[in-house]
Amino acid sequence: MLPAGILLIIGIASLILEFFVPSFGLIGAIGGAGIIGSIILAFRVSSTAGTVFLITSLILVPALMMIFFRLFPKTFFGKKLILGKSFRQEDGFTSSAGKYSELEGKRGEVLTDLRPVGTVLIDQNKYQAVTAGEYIPKGKMITVKKTEGSKIIVTEADI
Fold it and tell me: Considering the entire predicted model, what is its pTM?
């Protein structure tokens, strides 16, 4: 029973470690295999021991993970790892997400060929813009169709 218990503890620790070490799921897979291995070892001892390990694993693993993630942000390491301050507009922080929305519907000129990305001039300001896939040569007039965050989507203007 002792090897099964040690394997269960190693498996749970590996699952928790997976969240902090970039291993593309390898440590988590090892942890899951450790938990399954501990259940198999317990079933080899007796079916009662195996059932106890199975039920314990099904209850203990999610419970420990939940407790760990509730307590972790309050620890010294958690405070260093997790961003605690929010960046609000009232504090002077701004996002570029809404910055380009006022350009929708405006017309401009293509400064570099849009293949489908290039530079356009709108209201005497240069912007990086993208088309829906079509080629628009330099010198043509464009209309801003829509904006998605900092992405400006344009089409050739109807004359």
Answer: 0.50
* Non-local CB neighbours of 4 within 8 Å, separated by 6+ positions: 38, 39, 41, 42, 45, 49, 53
Contacts of residue 84, defined as CB under 8 A and 6 or more positions apart, other chains included, come to: none
Residues 20, 39 contacting (CB under 8 angstroms): no
pLDDT in tens, 47-99: 999 999 999 999 988 998 899 889 888 888 888 888 777 777 777 776 665 67
| Cβ count near 156 (within 10 Å) | 16
Q: Which domains does the chain have, with CATH numbers?
A: 2-81 (no CATH), 101-156 (2.40.50.140)
